[in-house]
Specification:
The protein has helices at 3-17, 24-35, 62-70, 77-80, 92-95, 98-103, 105-111, 147-185, 205-213, 229-237, 303-310, 314-325, 329-336, 340-354, 359-368, and strands spanning 39-45, 52-58, 89-91, 116-126, 131-139, 190-194, 200-203, 217-220, 223-226, 254-259, 265-272, 288-294. The protein contains 15 helices and twelve strands. It is α+β, with helices and mostly antiparallel strands and 377 residues long.
Length: 377
């Protein structure tokens, strides 16, 4: 196989390792063979100390690798490296006089027992938090680092740098997505992310429970639907389902009061998304976030904030929250132990102060103050 063919295959292996980081040891062994070395290691060096962290290695006995990590990394030539531009390749004589190196504890106790005589170190990255380095060692059979080794290593280094950067970017996105999904799963409210066609892109744990229950919401072919005809009609009429032609959520979104077939009350709030959360979903772009929670008297909406906003009296606040929780005028009267006429009087005042014209709109008023981010126990 020609040098160019070997290099092309090696480059392909590097980029494959961005998706399968566990392959880096095997890729390193091929890099070592290509450049004419004995062993290889991908390392990170602390810029303010002599600490070296060896991530991947090949061609080094596990016993000596353990000794290197525990002791000898701090006294070796790589720890002494304080210069070098990105892409630069240096060898031991450029870091420390070679005679001095041969008298060092590192050489006598660690390098010489393995037949290790020199190392080519390529600077892959330099940041305030650390240096990324590729080291390829030479033994007595290979001889000292020479121009041919430097030439071949220079062909490889740019691709090692790029593949490692791509791998780190993928890891960050995966970590961000995992963290984001974990946070969403801790919400007490159900969360569904929908695409422009009403298809479900992502659900948190609470929403999954609602969909499995099926009384309030269902998923039909990954498309959001109401649990019964009434819920489906309510979703469509309020434009929560993007399939409702000519309707949109606007900048502030919409609030939808919902009820299961057995009378449990819920509040759904749909909000447009400027952009989809990275790494969340099944590939389609999420355009709408839908939060769904039970309408309860102990919901996280602060009554004093609503009272202050609409100049409500304490009794009016009690009636307002009872209407959200319990429902109709007779039920509220029974729950609060007051006359129906009193409830109607307060209801009229609530309409006047909030601008609502129907009881369902009062539910939206309360829901508009709600932050559906209470964490699950």
């Amino acid at each position: 196989m020609t040098e160019q063919a070997r290099l092309s295959r090696l480059i392909a292996d590097m980029y494959d390792a961005t998706l399968e980081p566990g392959h880096w040891s095997e890729v390193l062994s091929r890099i070592v063979a290509f450049v004419g070395g004995h062993g290889g290691c991908l390392m990170a060096k602390d810029p303010t100390s002599r600490d070296i962290d060896a991530h991947w290695q090949t061609g080094v006995d596990p016993h000596y690798m353990r000794l290197y990590n525990e002791t000898y990394s701090k006294i070796g030539p790589v720890a002494s490296l304080t210069f070098g531009d990105i892409g630069q390749i240096v060898s031991v004589p450029e870091v420390v006089p070679y005679d001095e190196f041969r008298r060092s504890r590192f050489y006598l106790e660690w390098a010489e027992p393995q037949g290790w005589v020199d190392v080519a170190v390529a600077v892959l990255d330099k940041t305030t938090t650390g240096w990324g380095l590729l080291g390829v060692s030479r033994n007595g059979a290979n001889g000292m680092v020479d121009d041919e080794m430097r030439r071949r290593l220079a062909l490889v280094v740019p691709h090692v740098r790029r593949s490692l950067r791509i791998g780190r970017a993928i890891e960050r996105r995966q970590a961000d997505a995992a963290t984001f999904a974990d946070v969403l799963d801790r919400l007490s409210a159900g969360l569904l992310l929908l695409d422009a066609h009403g298809r479900i892109v992502h659900t948190n744990a609470a929403a999954e429970e609602m969909l499995r229950d099926g009384r309030l919401l269902r998923a039909i072919g990954r498309r959001l639907a109401g649990g019964d005809a009434q819920a489906e009609r309510c979703l469509r009429e309020t434009a929560l389902l993007p399939r409702a032609e000519g309707m949109n959520l606007g900048r502030e979104g919409v609030v939808v009061p919902l009820r299961t077939c057995d009378g449990e009350r819920y509040i759904a709030r749909a909000m447009p998304l400027a952009s989809a959360p990275r790494g969340i979903g099944e590939g389609a772009e999420a355009t709408t976030a839908v939060f769904v929670r039970r309408a309860t008297m102990d919901n996280p909406t602060p009554p004093d904030i609503i009272a202050e906003s609409y100049k409500l009296t304490p009794t009016e606040v009690r009636v307002l929250f009872a209407l959200v929780e319990v429902g109709g005028v007779p039920e509220v009267a029974a729950a609060l132990g007051i006359a129906e006429t009193t409830v109607k009087t307060h209801l009229a005042r609530l309409f006047a102060k909030t601008g609502a014209r129907r009881q369902a709109e009062l539910v939206k008023v309360v829901a508009s103050f709600s932050m559906p981010v209470t964490h699950r126990a």
